[in-house]
Amino acid sequence: MSSTRHNSNSIGLFCGLLAMFACNAVAVEYYTEKPSFLPSCRIYEPGFTKCSTNTIQKLVDQLQVGIPEIIEKYGPWDPMHIRDIIFKQDNVEVATIRANLTEVVVTGFSQIKIKESRVSKKDFSWQTKIFLPKMRLDAKYKMEGRILLIPLSGAGNIFIEIENVDILMYTKTQLYEKGGFTFDNVTDVQVRLNMSRVRTQLDNLFNGRSKEVERSTNQFFNDNWRDFYEALKPLIVDTVENILKDIMGAVFHLIPANFFVEDIPTPQQLYGKTA
Ligand SMILES: *[C@@H]1O[C@H](CO)[C@@H](O)[C@H](O)[C@H]1NC(C)=O
Ligand SMILES: *[C@@H]1O[C@H](CO)[C@@H](O)[C@H](O)[C@H]1NC(C)=O
Ligand SMILES: *[C@@H]1O[C@H](CO)[C@@H](O)[C@H](O)[C@H]1NC(C)=O
Questions:
Q1: Which candidate among 96, 123, 179, 264 keeps its CA 20 to 30 Å from the CA of 12?
Q2: Which atom of ligand 1 lies closest to the CA of 143?
Q3: Are 68 and 11 spatial neighbours (Cβ–Cβ below 8 Å)?
Q4: What is the rounded distance in angstroms from the CA atom of residue 100 to the CA atom of residue 87?
Q5: 78 secondary structure, DSSP code
Q6: C-alpha closest to that of 62 among 222, 255, 256
Q7: What DSSP character marks residue 261?
C-alpha cells in the first residue's frame, strides 16, 4: 500500500492570478538564512533535548501557519489532502481485505504537541515523542474481504477517528552537504502508535442491502475498536509514516540542519572522507 500527498497547484494558480515577480520570490530550493520562527540548539551543550523539543514544536507550528515551499508541494498541513491509499492484507487472522481509499483527507495535525525530540550524536537519527488529541481520516472507500470474521463488501464514505494518539517516531537520516550547509536526508520513518479510542463509520456497507446490518456492523466495530484497530493497523501506521516521511523529507531538504543544530558536524566529519 502507499499514500502520499497530492501535488497542489493552488499556489501556482494563486500566483498566476497575481504578479509573476512577486511569486518567484516565494519558493526557493533551500534556505540560506535561518528563518526567524526557528530557535536553534547546540547538541554538544547541556539541555539539548529540551531545546530541540521546543525547536521541533516551533517547526510544526510553522507548518500550520504555512511554509510556502511545503504548501506548494503538499498543500495545507491541516486538513491535509493525501493521495489514494490502496490497501491489501491477505491471510491475516483478523482481516483479509482489499480496500481502496480515494479523496483522502486527514485532519488533526495542527494540534500536534512535540513531547520530546532526541537526536543521536552517533548517527544523527531522531527519536520523537508526539501527542495528537485527535486524528481523523475521511475518504471514499471501496472494500472487499472480511474484518473480524465479518464478510464485507461495499463502497461509500468512510471515516476513522483516533483519539489521544501517542506517536513514537524513529527517523533515520543521512547527512549531506549543499551550498556549504549540512542537510538531513530523511531515509526512513517508523512509528509506534497508542491511542485511547478508535471510532469508525463505513456508509453503504454491503452495498446498501441492509441498513440494519450496516448499523449493527459499525456498532460492532466501535464496541470492539481495539480488535478493529489491530485489523486496520498496517493501513493506519503506513498512512502516518508516509505523511511524516514526505513532509519531513521536504522540510529537511529545504532547511539546513545547521539551523536546527548549530554545531552539527559536516558529512565529511561524521562519515569520513570516503563516504
Ligand atoms: C483497488 O484498485 C486496484 C488498482 O486500481 C484494483 O485493481 C482493485 O480491484 C481495486 N480494489 C477494490 C476493492 O476496488
Ligand atoms: C504504548 O503503550 C505501551 C504500554 O503501556 C508502552 O510500553 C509504549 O511505550 C507505548 N508507546 C507509545 C508510542 O506511546
Ligand atoms: C537521499 O537518500 C535517498 C535514498 O537513500 C537517495 O536516493 C538520495 O539520492 C538521497 N538524497 C540526497 C540529496 O543525498
A1: 179
A2: 13
A3: yes
A4: 6
A5: S
A6: 255
A7: B
Give 131 Cα–ligand 3 centroid separation in angstroms: 29
Q: Give the torsion through C-alpha atoms of 226, 227, 231, 234, to 10 deg.
A: 30
d(CA 229, CA 254): 35
Q: Collapse the DSSP code of 60 into the 3-class scheme (helix H, G, I; strand E, B; otherwise coil) and give the result.
A: helix
Answer whether 213 contacts ligand 1 (Cβ < 6 A): no
Cβ pair 40, 85 in contact under 8 A: no
Q: How confident is the model at residue 210 (pLDDT cuts 50, 70, 90)?
A: confident
pLDDT in tens, 72-128: 999 999 999 999 999 888 867 778 889 999 999 999 999 999 999 999 999 999 999
Encoded amino acid at 193, one letter: L
How far does residue 194's CA lie from ligand 2's centre (Å)? Answer: 6
Quick one: 239 exposed, middle or buried, by C-beta within 10 A (0-12, 13-18, 19+)? buried
CATH fold label, 36-271: Bactericidal permeability-increasing protein; domain 1 (3.15.10)
Please report the DSSP string for 215-232 in residue order: HHHHHHHHHTHHHHHHHH
Q: Give nearest CA residue, ligand 2 atom 8.
A: 194
CA distance 153 to 220: 16
Q: Residue 268 and residue 136: Cα distance in Å, rounded?
A: 43
Predicted TM-score (pTM) of the model is: 0.86
Domain boundaries in the chain?
Answer: 36-271
Neighbours of 7 (CB within 10 A): 11
Percentage with pLDDT > 70 across the chain: 89
What the block records as the C-alpha cell of 142 is 471501496
Closest CA to 235 of 121, 98, 32: 98
Per residue in 166-199, pLDDT (tens digit) is 999 999 999 999 999 999 999 999 999 999 999 9
User: Do the Cβ atoms of 151 and 213 come closer than 8 Å?
Assistant: no
